[in-house]
Specification:
The structure holds 2 protein chains of 2 kinds. Chain A is an alpha+beta fold. Chain A is built from 4 helices and 8 strands, in the order ββααββββββαα. Chain A has one domain: START domain (Alpha-D-Glucose-1,6-Bisphosphate, Chain A, domain 4), CATH 3.30.530. Chain A is globular and about 45 Å long. In chain A, 24% of the residues are buried. Helix content of chain B is 62%, strand content 12%. Chain B is built from 5 helices and 3 strands. The chains are: A alpha+beta, B alpha+beta. At the A-B interface, β2, α1, α2, β8 and α4 of A face α1, α2 and α5 of B.
Chain lengths: 151, 114
């Protein structure tokens, strides 16, 4: 089981291989009963989880975590292609800073030797035209700059 | 997870969206310099340079020190770090989720029959 991550281009990319089929992974990700079991994690209770897994369908997740208190996440499914791909928007609710901000999570399930790999990207500033225009340009130089300023 | 102000990050990312401003930051990352010195490196007018500098200042990416008529500019590294820390929080978040999924699948390799 390996995990690699990058923060280049100012999005998060996480990869991990699991010794199961991608159908199995896809279902664990999209079945509310299963997602409930793992998405909350340790020290984190899921109070509510509603998922309408189809393009345009919505989901709501209310998490009660010791560390951060009650938090609500919501969004809409953009792409649902079992067993290979899932795209959905992601927004913290009841948070003024997230007003009008929408991030996008893309999960790809890829067949690899011995199982399937999850390739997840979370882009923070994705779809609005104004933000979309920024992509490519500043993102490439950010890493370079971060390198400059932390030396 | 939500401690960072997205509004302020927005202004950072907005400021970084312009090639001239990125170039200015790169120059300032090498050495502090004054406004006229910086302006001489660009073929745009001084007012245009000032306009870019104001955007960078507003985003907190640079600081300006006034010494009479000479304005010295320097890079503010903290804001940039904040942007990359914000990203790191998400990486950690997803890493944790995938670890939890791995544990779950270990115990439930097959989907339960309903």
């Amino acid at each position: 089981m390996s995990t690699t991550t990058t923060t280049e281009n100012l999005f998060v990319e996480v990869r991990r291989t699991f010794p199961v089929s991608r159908e199995r992974l896809f279902d664990a990700w999209t079945d509310p009963e299963e997602a409930r079991q793992w998405f909350g994690g340790e020290g984190c209770n899921i109070r509510e989880l509603k998922m309408d897994v189809r393009p345009g369908g919505k989901y709501t997740l209310v998490v009660d975590s010791c560390e951060h208190g009650v938090m609500e996440v919501g969004g809409e499914y953009r792409e649902v292609a079992r067993p290979s791909k899932l795209v959905y928007t992601w927004r913290w609710m009841d948070d003024a800073d997230w007003e009008g901000v929408e991030s996008v999570v893309t999960v790809e399930f890829v067949e690899v030797a011995g199982g399937a790999e999850v390739r997840l990207t979370h882009r923070g500033f994705p779809t609005e035209e104004s933000r979309g225009n920024h992509e490519g340009g500043w993102t490439r130089s950010l890493e370079k700059l971060t390198g400059c300023v932390t030396r | 997870m939500v401690n960072y102000s997205t509004a302020s990050l927005d202004s950072v990312f907005g400021a970084l969206s312009d090639p001239t401003r990125r170039c200015m930051l790169e120059l300032l990352s090498r050495a502090e310099c004054c406004v006229t010195e910086l302006a001489s490196r660009f073929s745009i007018s001084l007012p245009a340079v000032s306009k870019h500098l104001r955007v960078l200042e507003k985003a907190g990416l640079i600081a300006r020190e006034r010494n009479g008529r000479v304005h010295r500019l320097r890079l503010e590294a903290g804001r940039m770090r904040e942007a990359s820390e914000w990203i790191d929080q998400y990486r950690e978040f997803w890493e944790d989720r995938l670890s939890a999924l791995a544990r779950y699948l270990e115990q439930n390799p097959e989907k339960k029959k309903k």
